[in-house]
Amino acid sequence: MTLVLPNLQGKQMGQVLTTITVTNFVDTVLVDRGFISAGEVRSALLDKVLVDTGATLLSLPAPIISQLGLKQVGERDVETSVGIRKGRIFGGAQITVEGRESIFDCLELPEGVSAVLLGMTSMQELGLEPDLKNQRLRVLPMNSEQTYLMG
Length: 151
Description:
Layout: E1 17-24, H1 25-32, E2 43-51, E3 58-60, H2 62-68, E4 71-80, E5 83-97, E6 100-108, E7 117-118, H3 120-126, E8 128-131, E9 136-139
Parallel strand pairs: 2-7, 3-6
Antiparallel strand pairs: 1-2, 1-5, 4-5, 5-6, 8-9
């Protein structure tokens, strides 16, 4: 008996990359209260963000965290490919992706890592899920007839 495999060229599943905007949420509050102008809000448009189902949090390189002026809110033990390490957590990262927006803590990535990771917590709260076959994010329903949020 011979096993016949279909031609999978061009049909392989793979990584999902997306574009997100990360904004310092405190800056947006300061604009609302008239302390700074909208032009002073620190924000970054990030391309080629890896949708990482193995990551819990939004993970940003230190230079981006510094550019945004995010405040450190703690440290946590983080499991990495080289074992458990201390990771610095920063608060007030407002992200916008696929038209959805919310505020999250983020994990500072180790020095030398330039990738941005969109973790599962962010995706779940925003109602997004990776579509590995089509290599894109799928926006889950949120309307008067159905919602991805469960109580």
